[in-house]
Write a structure and sequence with these properties.
The chain is of the alpha+beta class. Helix content is 26%, strand content 34%. Strands 1, 2, 3, 4, 5, 6, 7 and 8 form an eight-stranded antiparallel sheet that branches.
Length: 188
């Protein structure tokens, strides 16, 4: 497993899970038969150390998973370009502050999580329905009264996939109100 280069921005597992939980989508990466990477945005929901997603029963994603269930997923949250930290100053106004001004002018605040794991097709009927229920509650909570009807119609033509999380990392770049980057898990 690769180590995170910017350890000063590394966050804990709970932070990574919070990023995953609030993400509107994630990106799933698999490997094609020719060895090239393939990634696709997906709708997900997490329960414990498992991530659930749904899928059609055919396609590149399913072909890749059947051949090699090892995957990587990424999630991004709270992206912000901190222009308010720049005070409309030119970097040349005060030579001492050039580095600080450029540090906040050419950057982006973000939160991210990366998951490594194994993905499997859920065969157990109860777990499959629970996975679909969790996904529906997250993305279509107002449609829950129709959930059982949707199961009746689509259950046999839909896969539910479960990612068993083996390793997760969280990372953040964020500045405090004084324009100082909050490193080493520092919170406000």
């Amino acid at each position: 497993m690769n180590q995170m280069r910017r350890k000063d921005r590394e966050m804990d597992k709970d932070f990574a899970y919070a990023v995953i939980d609030k993400a509107e989508f994630g990106t799933l990466a698999t490997i094609n038969a020719d060895g090239n990477p393939y990634c696709i945005p997906i709708s997900i929901v997490r329960k414990g150390d498992k991530i659930y997603l749904h899928s059609a029963k055919l396609g590149t994603k399913i072909d890749n998973i059947m051949r090699n269930p090892k995957i990587c997923m990424s999630f991004v949250g709270n992206v912000h370009v901190p222009t308010e930290l720049n005070d409309n100053k030119s970097p040349n106004e005060n030579e001492e502050n050039i580095h600080k001004t450029l540090e906040t002018r050419f950057t982006t605040e973000y939160e991210s999580a990366v998951v490594f794991g194994t993905i499997n097709i859920v065969d157990d009927k109860t777990e499959k329905i629970e996975g679909l229920r969790l996904i529906t509650e997250k993305y279509s909570p107002n449609d829950m009264p129709y959930f059982n009807d949707a199961i009746d119609v689509s259950f046999n033509v839909t896969y539910v996939l479960r990612v068993d999380i083996e390793h997760v990392t969280g990372k953040r770049k964020k500045f405090d109100k004084n324009g100082i980057e909050m490193k080493f898990k520092r919170m406000e």
